[in-house]
Amino acid sequence: MSRPAPSPFYTLRGAGGPLNTLHFSCHGGDSPLLFSGSGKGAIHIWNLNTRRTEKIVEGHAGSSVIWVSRLQATDTLISSQGRDMQVCLWDLSEGRSEVVDSVWTGSVGFCQCSILETTPRNYLLAFAGQQSEEIKIIELPSKTPVCTLIPDAKLGMVMCIKLWQPNSGAGPLLLAGYEDGSVLLWDVTQRSKLSQAKAHPEPVMCMTFDTKRLRGISGSSEKKLSSWMVDRQNNLQGQLTCLTHPSPVSRSQALTGKIQECVTLVNPGVSQLCIRGDGKLLASAGWDHRVRVFGWKKLRPLAVLQYHTDMVQSVAFSDHQDPKERLLAAGSKDQRISLWSIYNEGADTG
């Protein structure tokens, strides 16, 4: 007999709006925390020991908060992005809730920022610009412009971005998903496009990237997740097997810039994707109110988590140092955050 579907071990209520973004901070501080951004402009800081709100930060003039991230090893400096076209840097030390700086993006879209620490207390911040296809990158805290990335062809609005630093020692790279379904790899230092692949027939709604395996996965409004690789020559390519077709894909086919590996979903629409820190699990936030969990290595379906009564808009894995304490959080349009404890005992995830 198959095991019954698990239930959340706890639910956080009181966000006051749809949950657009989640970010864990479970080491380096006194208590494990979860940051959430709501559609009503509030940032909630949840204490996971007491399971209550520790602080509520009101920002972005009541506009929807679509991204929250911690900036350093402590919980006293965070950044947030709102649909008021602002990225704010907050100082939360000693009970404060102060905006210490802000960046005007000019973008009214839903593309979440991406931040990369380059040296201690220095960061690169990438965000969608005022023009629909442009990505701007600046240094923080100086706010010095680094570059503006605009594709040669008309790809439509930029939908999602991911800054990362390759282990080769080369400069930072950026992955971007666009409205026409393309994924592009950019060299930030050279301000140039390295490669491009067609991942979806519809806009790329979300993506995540495993910097250790150089492997990414993206979702759209369709019933499919597309998996892809970045090879040693910085070419985007599909993997050499296809989960929806039994026949193997030749290497010549894989290098054409078309994505070859995909996972077919039961229902269409994915809001967000997240890979657990140990590289074993992938979670997807579904428009069908469900969270799906896969083994990241083989993309094997492991669980369907059913709790929410509306679209799931965000998923995040905790960064607990003890694997037994690791959590999965899901935020929904139903204004609730579900917390799940699954696959923490070294089970075969595949």
UniProtKB/TrEMBL annotation:
Q: Which UniProt keywords apply?
A: Repeat, WD repeat
Determine if Repeat is one of this entry's keywords.
Answer: yes
* Superkingdom as given in the UniProt entry: Eukaryota
UniProt entry tagged with the keyword Signal: no
Tell me, what's a Pfam family for it?
A: WD40
Family matches, as PROSITE patterns: WD_REPEATS_2 (PS50082), WD_REPEATS_REGION (PS50294)
Coiled-coil positions = none
Write down the SMART domains for this protein, in alphabetical order.
WD40 (SM00320)
Sequence ranges of the WD repeats: 171-196, 305-342
The record's PANTHER family line, in alphabetical order, gives: GUANINE NUCLEOTIDE-BINDING PROTEIN SUBUNIT BETA-LIKE PROTEIN 1, TRANSDUCIN BETA-LIKE 3
Which protein is depicted?
Answer: Guanine nucleotide-binding protein subunit beta-like protein 1
